[in-house]
Amino acid sequence: MDEAGATPRFLADAMLGRLARWLRVLGFDTLYDPAGEDKELVALADAEQRVLLTRDHHLVRFLRPHHPLLLVAEAPLLQLREVIDACQLHPPAELFSRCLLCNQPLRTATAEEAATLVPESIRMLPGQVRRCPNCRRIYWYGSHTRRMHETLISAIPEWFQ
Ligand SMILES: [Zn+2]
Q1: Is residue 3's pLDDT more than 60?
Q2: Which pTM does this prediction carry?
Q3: Ligand 1 center–CA 57 separation, angstroms
């Protein structure tokens, strides 16, 4: 990892898409490209000083990324626990601050965007409407996000006390 105290950034290998998604829900900068070749992934992780998350011993042994984190668990939420422990991650100030599809930090949607793009029943919900500046996807705190939030509370209870 970089300087002491800096929040690590990640690159998840092609097998770890669900883990990458959970890390993004928690706001951690996590690249994921299921089509990327192992060599390209390692080169990118090293160039950007990212922790390369993988379950592939061969990748670590033969391609020697600078900052590998070899995960053992098969279940994504247990993998998340391994990353949190190994990298000593701290709870984020807020959830859903990053696009789950393309990893971009979200911005608050304008009133006009919310009015034109979000159904009225959803605009009444608590929480901000956010938009990805890259892929333009809209996010709000609906039933899907609430379920993910509840799953995280079960998986990492000490972060949500
Ligand atoms: Zn996006």
Answers
A1: no
A2: 0.92
A3: 31
